[in-house]
Amino acid sequence: MEWMLVTGLLAALWVGVDVVLLGSPYLFQIMYSQFLSVVGFILTYNLIPPFAEKLKARGLFGKDLNKPGKDVPVPEALGIIPGTVFLVCVILSQFMFSSDAVKLLEYNAGLLSICFMILLGFVDDVIDLAWRYKLMLPTFASLPLLIAYRGSTSILIPKWIASLMSIPHLINLGYFYHLYMGLLAIFCTNSINILAGVNGLEVGQSVVITVATILHNLLELFWSVEDGTADDNPFASMHLFSLLISFPFLACSLGLLCHNWYPSRVFVGDTFTYFAGMFFAVAGILGHFNKTLLLLFIPQLLNTILSLPQLLGVIPCPRHRIPRCNPNTGLLEPTPNLTLLNFTLRLFGPMTEKRLVQILLLFQVLCCAGGLVIRHYSSLMFFFV
Amino acid sequence: MEWMLVTGLLAALWVGVDVVLLGSPYLFQIMYSQFLSVVGFILTYNLIPPFAEKLKARGLFGKDLNKPGKDVPVPEALGIIPGTVFLVCVILSQFMFSSDAVKLLEYNAGLLSICFMILLGFVDDVIDLAWRYKLMLPTFASLPLLIAYRGSTSILIPKWIASLMSIPHLINLGYFYHLYMGLLAIFCTNSINILAGVNGLEVGQSVVITVATILHNLLELFWSVEDGTADDNPFASMHLFSLLISFPFLACSLGLLCHNWYPSRVFVGDTFTYFAGMFFAVAGILGHFNKTLLLLFIPQLLNTILSLPQLLGVIPCPRHRIPRCNPNTGLLEPTPNLTLLNFTLRLFGPMTEKRLVQILLLFQVLCCAGGLVIRHYSSLMFFFV
């Protein structure tokens, strides 16, 4: 039932994009990307079971801590499959831009950052990197992206704040803007990684955010077509870029979600969370909607803020911070750890794992919907009143 | 003794490059790359022992088949360390070109191809990919490189052949040239991978070829400085690119060789051979010396031709094709498998493993030296007489 709903909505989105952009100069590129994405979904879905067996045989498996009594080993690090398939899909998209060096540069810089993060994630899954590497290496991985960034380094300040503080409306941050983008990449990678611990949550939240990303870029692109500014509008081509990499990401993530949804037959590993985090950073930075991206990351932002006392070591931080499963009732109960999962369980009381994931994903949907409304209907008010 | 000789020669090369280019506009960039490379060597050398322990603990180790009686497990896949350090070094080199989109494109496309191959190599070491993936995935990995290639697609035919066959002296191959480059990338990756099986051979041959690559690019660059054409000579900037990525590769490989030389404390894995192969393809293609590169790959070419009957399945091909160690004499003896190693043992008789590696590397040095002489002193004759 729920799957039919999700499938229907996604199919509507898939076709809807084409309908909205009917007659626009982008339609062919979008449809080519969608075609590759469908192939990517089929590949991801079918490659996961055999590779899961191989990874398990190599000792890459975990215990599902929320299923007491069931000591079945679940294969780990399956994010490597959607990651690799995504890279192949997007590399094949490059043919559309082979004559445009600046466009190709963005593609390659973005893909390099993503590929480097997949590599680091997989190495982390295999040999458990120390924390200093986990924080340092994403910084290097995001550098190609930051160096290739060719856009504005200015931010708009709301007029009333600007006049209140007697500062200009438009501030050029220069290298501080690059610093901000680097921090954004580190935030995206790690915030998805720590909003985790119940079946399907990592991939589920990524799918919801990607759908919101697609809708946002579609709206921007649609308006630039309506305005007739599409051809010489640099922002239009940026949103197109973002759309063209979002479809393969959505498709490959869905292929993984089919196996990772409750009850999980495979785990996604740091490979997937790093991959997803860097994907959003690339889409947001090269698509020039990095402030909107933060609006779509509100649950991750809340969870990170909640977790800060433990992450910074003010309060002791155990290896796992997930809820506890009561073996008598089969329901999840909160632990004292500071996470959005435990907070939700405190708010609504003990519940099944599946219900907890559903509630968290519903919250993600509401936040993303709210974020898009704020962005598209209130931003004018916010910035110009 | 031998180590002092090698160290002395390398130090001479290191400083020699700076001396030759003294006063040229490239000196600063070269020295920055050399500085990063020294840091890269130190990092690689020091990170390998702790990571070797971690990989071994995860079950990533092999038996050293040429040391009968010694059943010590040797950690595998250590190519991941020089690979990752190399990526970080070259990403940090990008700052020098941050304003030049076309240059950055080449950097990022080349790095993406290399990074993708490191990822595939490491996955292969962890879960042993099937042959169809091993052949297919390097093709995708080399695509960014081919799409970003902005150079000529013509080849020069020696005049006497051209006049004999009544064809033009300069032939534009168009897309066939791209096909040729793709095949070159696949050849480089796989030919290093199969010229292997005795301690230190994979890294040793890569080090020798890299030194030849550096000398070749240095000569080209030196002549363009002498001619006074350096500033507006597109070839000069291509050879500079090649030099700037060759130093970090040489340094990181040397850091690995220190641990991989006979008797090996670590094995390099497919991670290193794929990494090295794609590095040479990138350096050769974006440095525009891909025909010269083939001259430096003569031992690999011979070994591949020798191996063809077994690779194609005309003659049965066992899992390992390495020589056999006679436990009584401790010497390696040839097996019936068609490889350069067995051929060498047939030619010179049984010998120790260390001596076999030395002979093969000496052969590599002679081939590279000969290749450079042919390229730099005979090419004019060959093409214009």
From TrEMBL, chains A, B:
Identify the pathway: Protein modification; protein glycosylation
What Pfam families does UniProt report for this protein, alphabetically?
Answer: Glycos_transf_4
Has keyword Endoplasmic reticulum? yes
Swiss-Prot/TrEMBL catalytic activity: a di-trans,poly-cis-dolichyl phosphate + UDP-N-acetyl-alpha-D-glucosamine = an N-acetyl-alpha-D-glucosaminyl-diphospho-di-trans,poly-cis-dolichol + UMP
Q: What is its main location?
A: endoplasmic reticulum
- Which GO biological-process labels does this protein carry? dolichol-linked oligosaccharide biosynthetic process
TM regions (residue ranges)? 29-48, 77-98, 104-123, 177-195, 207-225, 237-259, 271-289, 295-315, 356-377
Membrane topology of this protein: Multi-pass membrane protein
Q: Which domain of life does the protein's organism represent?
A: Eukaryota
Which PANTHER family does this entry report, sorted A to Z? UDP-N-ACETYLGLUCOSAMINE--DOLICHYL-PHOSPHATE N-ACETYLGLUCOSAMINEPHOSPHOTRANSFERASE
Q: What does this protein do?
A: UDP-N-acetylglucosamine--dolichyl-phosphate N-acetylglucosaminephosphotransferase that operates in the biosynthetic pathway of dolichol-linked oligosaccharides, the glycan precursors employed in protein asparagine (N)-glycosylation. The assembly of dolichol-linked oligosaccharides begins on the cytosolic side of the endoplasmic reticulum membrane and finishes in its lumen. The sequential addition of sugars to dolichol pyrophosphate produces dolichol-linked oligosaccharides containing fourteen sugars, including two GlcNAcs, nine mannoses and three glucoses.
Can you name this protein? UDP-N-acetylglucosamine--dolichyl-phosphate N-acetylglucosaminephosphotransferase
Which classification does the entry list for the species? Eukaryota, Sar, Alveolata, Colpodellida, Vitrellaceae
